[in-house]
Amino acid sequence: MPAPGSLVLPLCALILAPLLLGIVNRTKAVIAGRHGPPLLQPYWDIAKSLRRGAVYGEVTTWLLRLGPVGGLAALAAALLVMPFGGVGAPVSFSGDIIVLVGLLALGRFATVLAALDTGSSFEGMGASREVHFSALAEPALLLALATLARVTGSFALTPVYQAVGPMRFRHSRSSA
Prior knowledge:
By secondary structure, the protein is mostly helical. The protein has helices at 8-31, 41-51, 62-80, 96-117, 121-152, 157-174.
């Protein structure tokens, strides 16, 4: 069981994630020469969505309800195995690099499964796009993490982070 203090950073990451989306949307708008949405717009959208009632089609099953819950649970579990800002991960063990990639893939799988459960061709196209992106992104992520594991000699994210972090600072000090 992780210490209660070690859960603060993953909880902050989960709460502040919509703010990153707001920053990205505002930056894209500024680059396009527009004012853009407010930074807190993703929070307002989430609050608005949570106030609405759920509408389910006649052909959907329990898989549609499982999609968002499975995706959020997988991302929350992935946050528990990630180290943050010099602090080790709340849950760390040998092989958690592979577990992290698996959890991210599980979240995407839950989303795709929920989309395919609707039986609509539009959701099918969206699910196809998600699978296409995952086929490009997940092997690259796994290869990058495997390279770091090979260089550091550890398959746990916390030791990899601790080994790679000081290298960056040593390099920047020596070049100054």
